[in-house]
Amino acid sequence: MAKRAARDPDGLIRVHHLITGLGAGGAETSLYRLLKRLDRGRFACRVTSLTPDGQLAPRIRSLRVPVDDLGLTRSTPSLSALLFFRSHLRSWKADILQTWMYHADLLGLLAGCCNGARRVVWNLRCSSMELEHYSPMTRRVRSACALLSRFPAAVVSNSRAAVDYHRALGYRARRFEVIPNGVDSAEFRPDAEARCALRAEWGAEEGDPVFGLVARWDHMKGHDVFFRAARRVLERMPRALFVLCGEGADRDNARLARLSIEAGVRDRCRLLGRRVDVNRVTAALDVACLSSHGESFPNVVVEAMACGVPCAVTDVGDAALMVGDTGRVVPVRDPAALAEAMVALASLEGAERERLGRAARERAKAEYSLEAMAARYMALYEDLAGRSADGTGGPGAPGGAGASGENDGGRA
């Protein structure tokens, strides 16, 4: 590892995180979890959101990490915001600018390459996107990122699938780093008390199979596929309950309600909306489901695994790699196959399902710990800051990180 030079009196490496928003999505949650685990004796951090405060902003501030925002909307670019953020970087003397998601990647590169940060690191969080469901601005931003992808010092991805997907889009990063998301296995764990209390709240009787979909309301989450699978499950398991949890997954969502009615499962659905106790909700399930067709590293899968809950997942992103032999993997947009997997897992004898759940938890702890995730980010930041401190200049400078060509470090 390159020698770390003194950048300020306390010798800390200053990492400025720029993210599109601070809602409760996967990227935002991963940022929060990373900030909890970074060594404060080696790193100082602050966070800037493009859009106004989301629900994770207070939680990040509780870690004594400064948080501010640029007051933008997702569809409105702003030269003044770019200039303000560049000045902000300079005043804080950031060593690393870590950006999260396309809009922040682009703005961060434009701000950071003008000496606002010694190294700019992008972060990719998806392995497929059907852009017809997103704004024209998102399409333009992603295209611009592909064209400029050789300039960041490194591009971090949370899955191998995301690297492959973005290479196909034209990304030509000098250095790809695959760092899977981590799960807090102390927070997400088997919880008999939560299982008993919540199942009673939902009206689940002894022996009723409970299936869960933890996902915000978004086209790529495949709620329509889940409901069509639920209809097939209900035909074979009339006492099945289907629990949906996430932003927009509530009874105020008319389109979601219509899907449940059309599938004939509305009376067997529990629409919980956004919850702050997702760990307890997950621990109360018999089978956790993923019906998405646009993921990279779905946190909800590894969280369910850590809770000892078997998973039925679509083959999207790195979901199959995550689950391994502890669950079932089915093709995307195939409700019949998803239903078959759900029924198969729910039909296991109690001892066998418990064995599978224990294996899932052990796999989550061994392969996807928060400690491992944080260690890899810290190693990357120290490497890049050390190279920068050796006088190699900013992103794109000769001799900088990965300047000799694309370097996956054997990890992508």
Describe this structure in words.
The protein has 412 residues and is an alpha/beta fold. The protein has 2 domains: 13-182 and 369-392, Glycogen Phosphorylase B (Rossmann fold), CATH 3.40.50.2000; 192-367, 3-Layer(aba) Sandwich (Rossmann fold). Helix content is 42%, strand content 15%. The strands form 2 sheets. It has a 7-stranded parallel sheet, with helices on both faces. It has a 6-stranded parallel sheet with strand order 10-9-8-11-12-13, sandwiched between helices. The radius of gyration is 22 Å and the shape is globular. It starts with 12 loop residues before the first strand and ends in a 20-residue tail after the last helix. Residues 1-7 and 387-412 have low confidence and may be disordered.
Multimeric state: single chain
Assigned CATH superfamily of the largest domain: Glycogen Phosphorylase B
Number of strands: 13
CATH class of the largest domain: Alpha Beta
Which bin fits the share of residues in helices?
40-55%
Q: Report low-confidence residues grouped into runs of 5 or more.
A: 1-7, 387-412
H-E order = EHEHEHEHEHEHEHEHEHEHEHEHEHHH
Mean pLDDT: 89
Terminal residue distance: 20 Å
Indicate the CATH topology of the largest domain: Rossmann fold
Our Rg estimate from Cα atoms comes to: 22 Å
Q: In which order are the strands of the major sheet placed?
A: 3-2-1-4-5-6-7
Number of domains: 2
Helix run count? 15
Taking the sheet with the most strands, its summary is:
7 strands, parallel
Furnish the topology, listing elements before pairings.
Elements lengths: L12 E7 L6 H12 L5 E7 L7 H5 L5 E3 L9 H14 L3 E5 L1 H15 L2 E6 L11 H13 L5 E4 L2 H10 L6 E3 L13 H11 L7 E5 L8 H14 L4 E5 L8 H9 L6 E5 L4 H6 L3 E4 L8 H8 L4 E4 L4 H5 L4 E3 L4 H12 L3 H18 L2 H23 L20
Parallel strand pairs: 1-2, 1-4, 2-3, 4-5, 5-6, 6-7, 8-9, 8-11, 9-10, 11-12, 12-13
Helix pairs in contact: 1-15, 3-4, 4-5, 8-13, 11-14
